Amino acid sequence: MMCVNDVPITGDVSSAEGDAGNSVKPTTSESGKNCRLLCNPQRLPKPKVPRAEKKPVTTEAKYIIRDYFAWQYMKREKYAREVRWIKK
Fold it and tell me: Which residues are registered as beta bridge partners of 61?
């Protein structure tokens, strides 16, 4: 794979979409040559983001979630009464 730093600079390189414009940047490598981008980065397509599938919550799942949190609440309240953080 060719890196941007390995691409030779020629005056006749341009894309069909349009020239990259003022995209010549000096490099800090040992060669000291300027590099030119071969395409305009603003015209690149945006990456596709996978979307999560939303599934409706069933009534059974709602009851399971409600019971879980009710149990956690009761367990914490019982512990708080045992260590006398709250009064009976």
Answer: none
DSSP letters, 37-82, are: -SS-GGGSPPPP---PPP-PPPHHHHHHHHHHHHHHHHHHHHHHHH
Residue 62 and residue 34 share a domain: no
66 in the same domain as 37: no
Q: Do the beta carbons of residue 36 and residue 20 sit within 8 Å?
A: yes
Look at the pTM and tell me if it is higher than 0.70. Answer: no
Which residues touch 59 (CB under 8 Å, ≥6 apart)?
none
pLDDT digits over 30-77, tens only?
667 777 778 888 888 888 888 888 889 999 999 999 999 999 999 999
CB count in 10 Å sphere of residue 23: 13
Domain span at 85: 57-88
Phi (first) and psi of residue 3, to 5 degrees: -90, 160
